[in-house]
Automatic annotation (TrEMBL):
<dbReference type="GO" id="GO:0003700">
    <property type="term" value="F:DNA-binding transcription factor activity"/>
</dbReference>
<keyword id="KW-0805">Transcription regulation</keyword>
<protein>
    <submittedName>
        <fullName>HTH-type transcriptional regulator YvbU</fullName>
    </submittedName>
</protein>
<dbReference type="GO" id="GO:0005829">
    <property type="term" value="C:cytosol"/>
</dbReference>
<keyword id="KW-0804">Transcription</keyword>
<keyword id="KW-0238">DNA-binding</keyword>
<dbReference type="InterPro" id="IPR036390">
    <property type="entry name" value="WH_DNA-bd_sf"/>
</dbReference>
<dbReference type="Pfam" id="PF00126">
    <property type="entry name" value="HTH_1"/>
</dbReference>
<dbReference type="InterPro" id="IPR005119">
    <property type="entry name" value="LysR_subst-bd"/>
</dbReference>
<dbReference type="InterPro" id="IPR050950">
    <property type="entry name" value="HTH-type_LysR_regulators"/>
</dbReference>
<dbReference type="InterPro" id="IPR000847">
    <property type="entry name" value="LysR_HTH_N"/>
</dbReference>
<dbReference type="GO" id="GO:0003677">
    <property type="term" value="F:DNA binding"/>
</dbReference>
<comment type="similarity">
    <text>Belongs to the LysR transcriptional regulatory family.</text>
</comment>
<dbReference type="InterPro" id="IPR036388">
    <property type="entry name" value="WH-like_DNA-bd_sf"/>
</dbReference>
<dbReference type="Pfam" id="PF03466">
    <property type="entry name" value="LysR_substrate"/>
</dbReference>
Length: 300
């Protein structure tokens, strides 16, 4: 068993087939197939099942994959620690994030980090909030932008945010100062996919479990959410930090009572996080604090 074989296994799982895995790691498809078959022979178990729709892990493969990812993270940490001892910040870091997240926040942090550490290979993954939490717990990513706090991960505060109600400028809500759950009963609701569980559970709690709340649409793209709200298809819920400077025919109001939440940078363990992951966290915290995403200063 060697490092290349372990990297092959992860590549096949992440891409879902041998052809894309070969392209990803720069080998031929036959070399990938041969390397994985050799790993299975050495371990004495079948790791991957091949089918018409791609590949899937066996039970043994799932167990092996967990330890494989942990081993690769540890090896990357060793490389980064050695580089740091030479005064060099280099290596690979995988970041996971979910919609809806402020584009200004994300782009600002990524730009500042790459400016300070140009030798770091930063890989970005986008998914739902639940997927990102699972990626952190399973070592698929080194750092995830997640709810703070979050289960199965250690996190540090990055952003304090608030869910706002977004609606057309001629909507009846325009006369209100805040929007209660009772006011929402008659409205079709547009919920961001990545925050669906957080929003729906909070709304039901505020409405004391009111079954009349109509969760009509679940949408991934913030631009689509704003367009749907502008067309009067429903009332939308979006984090305040994601709102554009020009709402262009829309208005937004806070919930009554206000619906605040926190977003953090999560890792599986700060003790075992790679040096580059820690540098990214420090850079992100400093950028967020200096640009008003943490109104009370430095994160805790």
């Amino acid at each position: 068993m060697n490092l290349s074989q372990l990297e092959l296994l992860v590549a096949v799982v992440e891409t879902g087939n041998f052809s894309d895995a070969a392209d990803k790691i720069g080998l031929t498809q036959s070399a990938v197939s041969h390397g994985l078959a050799k790993l299975e022979t050495e371990l004495g178990v079948t790791l991957i099942e091949r089918g018409r729709r791609g590949v899937s892990l066996t039970g043994a493969g799932q167990e092996v994959l967990v330890h494989t990812r942990e081993a690769l993270v540890s090896l990357e940490a060793i490389r980064q620690a050695a580089a740091a001892s030479r005064g060099v910040s280099a290596g690979r870091m995988r970041l996971g994030a979910a919609y809806p997240l402020s584009a200004r926040l994300l782009v600002g942090i990524l730009g500042e980090f790459q400016r300070q550490y140009p030798d770091v290979d930063l890989v970005y993954f986008e998914g739902t909030a639940r997927e990102v939490e699972e990626w952190v717990a399973g070592s698929v990513v080194d750092v995830g932008i997640v709810l703070h706090p979050t289960p199965n991960a250690e996190s540090r505060l990055l952003v304090e945010d608030e869910i706002c109600v977004v609606f057309p400028a001629d909507h009846r809500f325009r006369r209100l100062e805040m929007v209660s759950a009772e006011e929402l009963v008659r409205e079709p609701l547009i919920i961001p996919k990545s925050g669906f569980k957080l929003v729906t559970e909070t709304l039901r709690k505020l409405g004391e479990g009111d079954a009349r709340l109509r969760f009509q649409y679940t949408v991934s793209d913030p631009r689509t959410i704003f367009l749907m709200a502008r067309e009067g298809l429903g009332v939308a819920f979006m984090p305040r930090t994601t709102l554009p400077d020009d709402l262009d025919g829309l208005m937004c109001l806070p919930m009554d009572p206000p619906f605040h939440f926190r977003v953090g940078l999560g890792v599986r363990s700060w003790e075992t996080a790679t040096p580059v992951a820690k540098l990214f966290t420090q850079t992100a915290e400093a950028w967020a604090a200096s640009h008003g995403f943490l109104p009370h200063g430095r994160p805790k």
